[in-house]
Amino acid sequence: MDIKKLRRDIGVGGQITVDDVKAIAEAGYRTLICNRPDGEAGDQPNWSEIETRARDFGLTTHHLPAISGKVTDEQGQAFGELLAASPKPVFAYCRSGMRSVTMWALSQASQRPMAELVEGAGKAGFDLKGVVRRILNGGRTPVEVADAKHAIVIVGGGAAGISVASSLLARQPDLDIAIIDPADVHYYQPGWTLVGGGVFDAATTARTMASVLPRGVKWIKSAVAAFEPERHAVILDGCRVVTYEQLVVCPGLKLDWGAIEGLSDTLGRHGVTSNYRYDLAPYTWHLVQQLHRGRAVFTQPPMPIKCAGAPQKAMYLSADHWRRNGVLDAIEIDFCNAGAVLFGVADYVPALMKYIELYGVNLNFGHTLTAVDGPARRATFTRALPDGTKESVVKEFDMLHVVPPQRAPDFIRVSPLADAAGWVDVDAATLRHKVHADVYALGDVGNTTNAKTAAAARKQAPVVAHNLLVARGVLKGDAAYDGYGSCPLTVERGKIVLAEFTYGGKVAPSFPAWLIDGTQPSRLAWWLKERILPPLYWQAMLKGREWLAQPEQVG
């Protein structure tokens, strides 16, 4: 007998025998629910036999049978009522456990997020994707109605989504395109590092979504809840349905602030900040200006993350300000990196190490932030030791710049589009889904190994636009993305180490070395970052103008 826990108060399993009842009771279960009709199979004990034995052990019993594959809404509701009224924990069973899991999920649909239910069942070995829409609809079977239908549906109105829409329209202006995104504001996120360094005003990095959407594109202002690729359908919150001929998935990633104990309660207070949030980047600059002595701690979580250089960019700009104001010697700086290296492409590390030494930074590799006590100004890290064990390390701080763990959005992780790690499973070159040929993905949500940066999305968008139109018979010959990514590392105010690379960490400069040598700090690279890239983003990338980003055809 195999008991699989869904939550602390409920376990499920396949068909049990009379002899199994003792083990269930000894495991601590106090209620037994059978979800299988008598007589389904020749080797199946009748419910009355199980019930009699269960009562010998003092278990509360219920029989709520369902036909395999036909769990009704009413049965889901009834299961929830039994669960609420019965002594805990509860063990439920059927032939395989699937009917019990389905009833449990439907009963919890109005109380818990869909992704939590689907993921919890998945960890126990049960696939609930077939009842996702019923879960989204509060445990009830939705009416089969498509609210909208478009040739191209793009999920996500960030840098990747807007860019690919514009690149598509530049190639075929009459395309029927819809972008699904619930946000009112579109952000130029690469600018937040400079907001935290006192260079940009936060307001310059934000524009209304309506103002940046390409003309002619339909905006569906809603959140996506699920995908049904076999039906060419996207399910929105409220169980509304949008169908498509081709789908582009680029909703970005999830910043998991809640994964660090105590962090959400202290962000923006007690010296705790992050340039990864629009409203907190100005607080970073405030803290930098106010700090004249003490300890500043900068963190970097496990990969993958959005812009792997951003955690140390914040540190360099802060340290440079303290150096220019004559207080650097009174400030201890710790860089606590969950990884094992300063930067993933070795060619750029020597230049960065010179600044580490200049600023007197203490490098702490293998340190993962796990908890923050804001009022006490204490940060707790888990440190990986050489022998594979771990220890807890507590650091006091006066300023703490946090980069949260990051993962694919919940509705992506539990979808049929995701790989085992939760990212959209696409071919690294064509960015086409490996199973569903009418689905593409780009930006931070894909499982490609490139750096998750806006520069990567700038190169990916034309590739997706081209290949999508090849599939529609408009163009010929696939285009390939080479993994290009860029990270302008702001090592001091006025100088940048311009890291550019493709798949495998191969250095791929856009400019000749006599103009900008990316492996060395450069004033011209700073000018590019501060003066050229923002208008390039707003007026070129988001408008479908592919300067230095034309796709390379391979077939």
TrEMBL record:
Residues 151-263 form the FAD/NAD(P)-binding domain. It holds the Pfam family Pyr_redox_2. The keyword Iron does not apply. GO terms for biological process: sulfide oxidation, using sulfide:quinone oxidoreductase. Keywords: FAD, Flavoprotein, Oxidoreductase, Quinone, Transit peptide. GO terms for molecular function: FAD binding; hydrolase activity; quinone binding; sulfide:quinone oxidoreductase activity. SUPFAM superfamilies: (Phosphotyrosine protein) phosphatases II, FAD/NAD(P)-binding domain. Its cofactor is FAD. InterPro entries: BLH_phosphatase-like, FAD/NAD-bd_sf, FAD/NAD-binding_dom, Prot-tyrosine_phosphatase-like, Sulphide_quinone_reductase. Signal peptide: none annotated. The keyword 4Fe-4S does not apply. Residues 2-110 form the Beta-lactamase hydrolase-like protein phosphatase-like domain. This is Sulfide:quinone oxidoreductase.
